[in-house]
UniProtKB/TrEMBL annotation:
Protein name, entry field: ABM domain-containing protein
Domain ABM: 1-62
InterPro entries assigned to the protein according to its UniProt record, in alphabetical order: ABM_dom (IPR007138), Dimeric_a/b-barrel (IPR011008)
Species annotation: Lacinutrix venerupis
Pfam family, one: ABM
Length: 100
């Protein structure tokens, strides 16, 4: 398994737009690209950390070409909702004890 950690700094009054777009885009990634889903954590007001899980590094690296056109809409909403977005890290999972 492979995970990617993201950080999102949200603009004031844009949280609802961001959250709806994040959920919709994550569902499309699972359905069309083989992603295993994501968890979104609130670090502090207007600052989110996301943990996206993939079956392996190759699936993550090759993702993006199978998404339907509507994914662009959700990406744009997320982009417009953020002051700052960054990938914090990409990691291979060594042990997984999270309960499903």
């Amino acid at each position: 398994m492979y995970i990617v950690l993201y950080s999102f700094d949200i603009k004031p009054n844009q949280e609802d737009n961001f959250l709806k777009a994040w959920k919709a885009l994550t569902k499309l990634i699972v359905k069309h690209e083989g992603g295993l889903g994501s968890r979104l954590h609130l670090e502090k007001p207007l600052k989110y950390i996301a943990y996206a899980q993939w079956p392996d590094k190759e699936t993550f690296t090759n993702a993006g070409n199978k998404l339907p056109k509507e994914a662009d809409k959700f990406r744009n909403i997320m982009r417009e909702s953020c002051e700052k977005f960054e990938i914090l890290n990409k990691l291979k999972v060594v042990e997984d004890l999270l309960l499903k």
